[in-house]
Amino acid sequence: MQTKRGTPISLEALATPQVSAARPPFAHLDTQVLDHLDFLSRNRSGKQALVLHLGLLSPQNRREQIQRVAYLAFKETVRTLDGQAYQMSTGDILWTGKVPSPAALEPSIARMRLLFAEDPLIQSDAGQATSRFATWYLLESQFNDLLGAVKRIAVAAEDQRRQQEARAQTEGRSGARQPMDPTTLAKLEALLARTDLSNLMRRQAIVSVTSGLAPTPLIRELTISINDLQTSVVPDIDLFGDQWLFQRLTQTLDRRMLAALARAEDGTLAQQVSLNLNVSTILSPEFLAYDQTVKNQDRSSVVIEMQKIDIFADPGAFLFARDFLKERGYKVALDGLTFMVLPFVDREKLGLDLLKVQFSPEMLVDKPGQGIERMKEYVERCGRARMILYRVEDEAALTLGKSLGISLFQGHYLDKLIGRR
Prior knowledge:
It is a single chain. Helix content is 45%, strand content 17%. By secondary structure, it is an alpha/beta fold. It folds into two domains: 164 residues, Alpha-Beta Plaits (2-Layer Sandwich); 242 residues, EAL domain (TIM Barrel). The chain has an eight-stranded mixed β-barrel with strand order 6-7-9-10-11-12-13-14, surrounded by four helices. It has a four-stranded antiparallel beta sheet with strand order 2-3-1-4, with helices on both faces. The radius of gyration is 24 Å and the shape is globular.
């Protein structure tokens, strides 16, 4: 791991307001972090520090929900070590403590790399002697370097705050959608409880494509279109603005969809269907009520998809939900994967029936050590009939998937193929 050299500064400088700033740039640092750094300034013998630079990740991975999940997952992996972990307002994680060597933290760092494996920051680290993602400090000799890094993080937090305020002012003047707040969410949930959502439900086929045979729909994934919900119900509100509130909204929609399916009279439950659900929804009374409406012989035709992030957010709940679903007879799939993370995902060990892997144009580039042959190995390990390649939007994506040995596909291009029949 890389050790960064910074300009030595005193601890007092961290808490000293800058004359030119509207507020102290370190106001964004948790008081606990400042207190802990003050303690370390007097007690650094034999101690080390690790900074994970989550604040340098791409915007989609800097969302509050994602970074909070990463922090909780990291804390879980280091709980047996002699140290303490903190998360700063930029998402960056600080760990300090005593370990025999940096190798003791490698499993924890590897888990974070897995969570963000497709991020450009992680990909740029591959094969490099130093890491931009993880920085290691020996506090006896590099304490001032750590302080310098923390100062830069605090300045970045202040910059982010100002940019957000500027964007909010611009959006306010331009009449852009307003962010969702708890009051708006409560009103929306009350409205959804009285609304027939059947016109917002969408079905997309998962299609079997094998040589010499016409594309055959096997499973139909059922979802509620949030984009259509926003357009038709709350056009002035940005449903995606706050990740925690959006997560709550998806749980509400999950449960409303389950209620609609429980009342379905069109034979939907007797067909091969796939439902993408939050773990909390699977463990909810609404799912139990839905489960009671599904005949024993029909459960094997229902696939429940869970997201990769659920494993990191609460591994215990994920495993409990998986075991419950398997015992009831459902098939279980893990959604949201990319070929970058497949080396770390063992379908059989995780007790899963299917893996859903997102197509990306980068897969068409045959890079040494990461190209077609390596992807074929991942498909073989998973099982050719156990992997679904989704977001297949053109013939090139389908052709690549078939060349890898994949036979299950999902995407608009497949919708067109089966629509012609």
